[in-house]
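pasting for ref. prot 1 ->
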Amino acid sequence: MRMMNSKTSSQSSNMSNNTNDTIPAAVAAQDLMKKVVARSGELTILSGLDLQIKQGESAAIVGTSGSGKSTLLGLLAGLDQPTSGQIHLVGQRIDELDEDDRAKLRGQHVGFVFQSFQLLANLTALENAMLPLELAGRKDACERAKELLERVGLGERLDHYPKQLSGGEQQRVAIARAFASEPQILFADEPTGSLDEETGEKIIELLFQVNRENDTTLVLVTHDMALARRCDRVLRLHNGLLKNITDSDREHAP
């Protein structure tokens, strides 16, 4: 049985500083539980965690491999459904929505940057960046996508296909695509995981610059503590629960 006192001390007290002000939460979870069936039996990945991330805030979720970081990100973004608990995205409870309605909400309010870029191989850089805008019926899709690709330094690569681009260039296209529809929330899952250190640093600098320019809420999943420290808040996922990492902890964390 889950210990309520343990949860209160590790989560509620840590989150209290973020529920007392008037800035509304862009992303929130309450008593979030996720269980899956494995060969060895039922596996609990998330153990009734609570989370609030304010509008315009950047938050990093760190933890060891297999701790459930990507699972949590998928739940918060409505890509998966929890076993129990509530999830609110831009003020709307999404765990009660069906897949079509969750997809519609994501299309209106959410952008994604993935470790593996997730570009469509048969589309050019421009066409990949245009895709969410075209799906939304935006008449300025081409103009907006060009503007963003130029912003990320790919103005001369508009007609190149993913296979003609380096890993860093592909991630720049992904960043342009993520911000194309002017999302309120950006979810980034290990955005530098497939890049070398030098390229990864450039991509992160770009990601944070564009994020600040658009005043977007950033939810970042990473195992890289140096990257996590760049966010307003750092939360560690351990044993299915979240705990805020203090400034002092950040300095000494590996």
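and prot 2 ->
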Amino acid sequence: MGTRSYWAEESSRDKFESMSETGSWHKPRQFLTYLFVRLVGMVASVLPRPVVAALMKLIGSIAFDVLRIGRRLTLMNLEDAFPDMTPAARRRIGRAALINLLVVSLDILRVRYQRRDKVLARVEFDPESEALCRQAMQEGKGVVYVSGHYSNWELLGGRLATLGSPAVAIYQELKNPFLSRELNLVRKKLNIRPALRGIAVKEVLKALKAKGSALFVADQEADPESGLMIDFFGKPASTFTGPAAMAVRFEAPFLATTVRRVRNRYQAVCERLDLKVLADLPADADEELRIRRLTEAFVDWLERNIRTDPSQYLWLHRRWEWWPERMKR
């Protein structure tokens, strides 16, 4: 299986721009959902955080236990990731994960109605990690940051953008185009230039050449034709190679990073993987092997961080879609 970067699947901006001309942009249900989300964000921005957290705990519990929103897929993923865990323990994690998603989503929506510096002041790097990021930026080759859907990955991107500019975040279009536009406005307020996955290569190159950073959230299931099958929680998962490919081809530092919610604040950490991983390879190792080793290192790093608190991970996407055992279900 090749290591073609995942943004190479579409060759022009025309394909994306044509979406805005379709009827999907004008569906009443999508627009009403968007208006509701805007209203919730406005209310959440003025309510005390403890009140919002208590409401989200109540709403999340009802959604998971009564309405069963996302429950089946969440529990199926948790069973695959933690086969030795009791069903009751998996239900507790699944419920907590949905509550966490609601809490961090409201924190993202708050960005539209509060000052950027006030929002980002709640995202703290440990001194060693921040020094590592700044040192990587000083090398003058740009930096490739890669993360997963853990805790508040959007605010993490905003905090990383304060360490070096310009910053580009590669994103996937949401099914609701109004919400997708709203989220991109949040990203821009965080000083992040959003670039649509599939046509982002020019924006990434521009950022790296300007000694900026490219931010990837690369833990969703990749097309098996372009991804690599790499074990994630002991199960093979098709994994995006784009972040590692950019780091290898442009000799840019490759840093894995994540953030964890601790009460009303977020603690961010990062680890540089390229120096550690590529140093163990022979000098004549080809590009494909380097990309594989970096991608494997990121997946392993992400799994270890998720295991410290699985309730902050997004278990609502089909991570093992191409695993033969999952395909039988």
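Residues 6-327 form one domain.
The radius of gyration is 20 Å.
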